[in-house]
Specification:
single chain, mainly alpha, elongated
Amino acid sequence: MPDSVISGNNLSKDKAEHFWETLKQLGVYCRKHWWSIFLSVFFSVVGTMLMVIAPEKLKDRTNLISAGLHSGIDIKEIGKLSFLVAFLYLFSFIFNLIIIFKKVHYFISP
């Protein structure tokens, strides 16, 4: 078995041959798809950011309800935070769905 083959947990320590030339060829090939790649990365980043931000806002809403149990619940503020959390989760879902559709379209297109 050659040294460059990956087997189990033993990774090859051979240096990649023609790395920069191959990277340049990949760039030339991807040039016609750069807009699609950019949009995919953009939607992935935004969708992930929204999924990270939403639980923090949900925590704020829960804290507001807990604090309001003793002094009175501010329904307007809870409504605003609830709408914001729903908005964040909805747009996160939409952005991630766009990525899924993009992948499905790639695999079914001729």
